[in-house]
Design brief:
The protein is an alpha/beta fold and 225 residues long. It has a single domain, classed as 3-Layer(aba) Sandwich (Uracil-DNA Glycosylase, subunit E), CATH 3.40.470.10. Helices cover 28% and strands 14% of the residues. It contains six helices and six strands. The protein has a six-stranded mixed sheet with strand order 2-1-3-6-5-4, sandwiched between helices. Strand 4 and strand 5 form a beta hairpin. The chain is globular. The two termini are 24 Å apart.
Length: 225
């Protein structure tokens, strides 16, 4: 594929139609991020929040907003209001923004999504559907990897990391970052036969990436080198 002609619209047909009216979202960054080549692809497990409190934010409606209403350079982490707080300061948003600053990357130019497009308050609430939903959504991610040719994938948490590593065969362990605290949680770097580097990072909803003792930015920087 000629990546110079890639546009965000080319990914929309790969969003499962059976999920269109469920609470959730596909895109965590906008048109600028999903056009042309991108060094990094950020992937979590699924959108958070109570589906009953976000009934109007369906996969279909949010996709339409990203395509037609939001600025070309848009990032959910930087620009979206979460839990009524000003953009970029609530939950894991400031931690992801911190990491992107360390990498010198514009949040609005970094493609970001989730393995599963359906929202749930906790991962356990979609556990029974998880494997099936990942299979439904994977063609979208597969096309992102093919079209945007990222050097590295940043997986938010172990579940996303485990599934993505399996999907692309990223089984060669490279190195790891161990938190400098009593819990000693690990973020790890793997390589796939294709050459894509996969960072399986601690989840920023729990780990404070803004703290030097728990910041995996150096590992992601190594993956992009």
């Amino acid at each position: 594929m000629n990546t110079s002609n890639v546009g965000i619209e080319s990914f929309v047909p790969l969003i499962p139609t059976e999920l269109a009216h469920e609470s959730g979202k596909v895109f965590y960054s906008g048109r600028a991020a999903f056009s042309g080549k991108a060094p990094l692809y950020i992937v979590g497990i699924n959108p958070g929040g109570n589906p009953e409190e976000h009934t109007t934010e369906t996969v279909e409606n949010h996709t339409h907003q990203v395509l037609t209403e939001f600025p070309n350079n848009w990032s959910a982490y930087r620009d979206e209001v979460w839990n009524g707080k000003p953009p970029g300061i609530y939950g894991m948003a400031p931690r992801i923004l911190h990491l992107l600053r360390q990498l010198g990357l514009d949040p609005g130019c970094v493609p970001a999504s989730n393995l599963i497009f359906v929202r749930s308050s906790r991962e356990k609430h979609i556990k029974k559907r998880q494997a099936n939903l990942i299979e439904l959504c994977w063609p979208f991610h597969d096309q992102v990897l093919t079209a945007l040719c990222p050097t590295a994938i940043l997986c938010l948490g172990g579940t996303a990391g485990r599934y993505i590593r399996k999907k692309i065969g990223a089984n060669r362990f490279i190195t790891q970052f161990i938190e400098q605290n009593n819990r000693r949680w690990k973020s790890q770097l793997f390589s796939a036969p294709s050459g894509i580097q996969v960072v399986v990072a601690t989840h920023p909803s729990i780990a404070d990436w803004c703290n030097p003792a728990t910041d995996p930015s150096s590992l992601v920087k190594q993956a992009l080198a």
